[in-house]
Amino acid sequence: MQKIAVVTGANRGIGFEICRQLAHLGIKVILTARNEEKGRIAAEKLRDDGLDVVFHSLDVTNEGSIRSLAEWIEETFGRLDILINNAGILLDRGYTTLQVDIDKVRETMETNVYGPLRLCKALVPIMLKNDFGRIVNVSSGAGAFSKMRTGQPGYSISKTAINALTKLLANELAGTNVTVNSMAPGPVLTDMNPNGKRSVEEGADTAVWLATEITETGKFFGDRTEIEW
């Protein structure tokens, strides 16, 4: 049976590339984005390459939007196998912890942490009905205590929190066939990181690997290698 995957924040960058790589493996991909026009264009581009990709609008900070996606998946497919929580924002580059605007930290947490939590609450029950699921949370080296330095405090805190969420969910889902892992794509050249040195292909690789090949759970990876954090 063909697997079904949801990728958030997928109209560009790493998310778009994750969709492309998953679809090349024969997986049906639900490409989601907050901007409907950009999301539809992105999905159409992948379909033009012969890939099985559909678009569904999604604002990860909106409960109604998430509920609409979950209901549509249930009605349309009756299953969900893969969730890639990729949507993320970085609003405080260049600020120190003592300088940062708390509202920017709060907004960052809404998207980068509470969004994935909301999605897991809505979509994991669908996975459990079929006793299979692979959840991958896109984190960052900035979320590892061992690599944390200074700057972008809201972003770093959010990525540390997504790693904690990963561990909690993995422990709670132990004994099921649903795994939860996080990964760091590295310094990928994207709109969010114009100084990045890595390609989107390199950045997406570990997420796709975790979604399709790995049965370990509750761990943090980079370049297919576990990161101590």
In short:
With 229 residues, the protein is α/β, with parallel strands linked by helices. Helices cover 44% and strands 16% of the residues. Strands 3-2-1-4-5-6-7-8 form an eight-stranded mixed beta sheet, with helices on both faces.
Describe the protein's architecture and organization:
This protein has 229 residues and is of the alpha/beta class. The chain has one domain: Rossmann fold. The chain has six helices and eight strands, in the order βαβαβαβαβαβαββ. It has an eight-stranded mixed beta sheet with strand order 3-2-1-4-5-6-7-8, sandwiched between helices. α1 packs across α6 and α4 runs parallel beside α5. The longest helix is centred in the middle third of the chain and has 28 residues.
| First-residue to last-residue Cα separation | 37 Å
Rg: 16 Å
Assembly of the depicted chains: single chain
> What share of the residues does DSSP label as strand, in percent?
15-25%
Unreliable segments (pLDDT under 50, ≥5 consecutive)? none
Please provide the count of β strands: 8
CATH superfamily: NAD(P)-binding Rossmann-like Domain
Total domain units: 1
Sketch the topology as an H/E string, one letter per element. Answer: EHEHEHEHEHEHEE
Which descriptors would you attach to this protein?
6 helices; 16% strand; 44% helix; 229 residues; single chain; 8-stranded mixed β-sheet; alpha/beta; Rossmann fold
Task: Please write out the topology.
Elements: E1 4-7, H1 13-24, E2 28-33, H2 36-48, E3 53-57, H3 63-76, E4 82-85, H4 102-129, E5 133-138, H5 153-172, E6 178-183, H6 200-212, E7 220-222, E8 225-226
Parallel strand pairs: 1-2, 1-4, 2-3, 4-5, 5-6, 6-7
Antiparallel strand pairs: 7-8
Helix pairs in contact: 1-6, 3-4, 4-5
